[in-house]
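Record passed on underneath.
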Amino acid sequence: MPAEKGSHKTQGKKPDWYRATARYGKPDARKAAWQILDTFIPYFALWALMIYTVKSGVSYWITFALALVASVLLVRIFIFFHDCCHGSFFASTRANRILGYVSGILTFTPYEDWRRCHAIHHSTVGDLDRRGTGDVTLLTVDEYLAASREKRFGYRFYRNPLVMFGLGPIYMFLFRFRFPSKGARKHERRSVLITNIALIAIVLLASFTIGLKTYLIIQLPIILIAGAIGLWLFYIQHDFEGVYWARHEDWDQMRASLEGCSYYKLPGILKWITGNIGLHHIHHIRPGIPNYNLQQCYRETPALRDIIPLTFCKSLKTPWLNLWDEKKGKLVSFRSVKTLHHQGIFQS
C-alpha cells in the first residue's frame, strides 16, 4: 500500500532511482546453487522419510506432519520455477529452462505455458481493460450489478475463501494446468504435454515401486497444501486494501507496480520459504531480479521503503474485499454493495 495515494504517478516516465535497481538483476550462480541444495535435498529427504513411515505402519499423522514441511519446501521450489520463468534464477537461458521444467513437474505446472500467461499478467497488472490472463478474476461494482443472477452466484462462489483456497488448488494444479491456456503457441502446448507425460511416468514408476496408494497419500497433501499457500500469496499480492486499478487510458505501469502490488511483510522463516516474494512491488518493477537479491534491493533503495507494508493480520481481512468500486477507487465487499443497492444508490 502506498504511503500517499497517487504519490507514485509517473506519467509513463521512470523515476530517477529506477535505473539503479538494474544492478540487482544480475544472477549469482553460487546463490542459485545454494538455494537448490538447501531446498531440493531436504524435500527429497522428506519424501524418503514419508515413504518409510507409510511402509512401516507408523501413524499417518506423522506422515502428514512431514507432508506439511514438504509442502512449504515445494512453495519455495515454485519460487525458483517463477524466477526461471523470468529468466532471472540463472544467467543461462538453458539452465533456467532445465530447472524451470524440473521444478514445474514437481509443482504440476507447465513451464512455457505458465511463463507466457505470467508475462501477460506483468504487462497488464492494475489495468481494468486488460484483465483476464494470469490474474485473479475481478469484477467492478457496475459489472457485478449488471450481471445475471447466475453470473453473480458464480462470481460469489469463486470468491468464497473456502472455494478459492480449498477447491482452487485442486482445480488449478490437478486439472487446469493439464491443458494449454487460451492462445498458447506450439512450444507452450508442448510444455503442457511434456509435463503431463512426466507426471504420468512418475505415477507409473511409483505404482511399480512404492505403490500407488503410498504415492497418493504423500503427494496429494503436499501439492494441495502448497497450492493453497501459493494461491494465497498470489491473491494477497494483488487484492488488498489500497490496491491500484485504473482504466487503460489512465493506467500508469509504475504506479501499477508500486501500488497494485503489495509489500507483504513476513517474518524471517516465511521470507525464506517464499523467496522474498512478499516484496512484490519490487518484483513487478524489476521482474529480472532473482529472489535472492530482492531483500538487498529493498534495503538499499530508499524509495522502495516508502511503501506501507501489508501485515499478516491486515491481510486476513482482504478476502472479504471482492469488487472494484470505480467511483471510490477502492475494493469493497459484497455486503457493502448489497446494502447500497437496497438503498437505491446503485442501479442494476
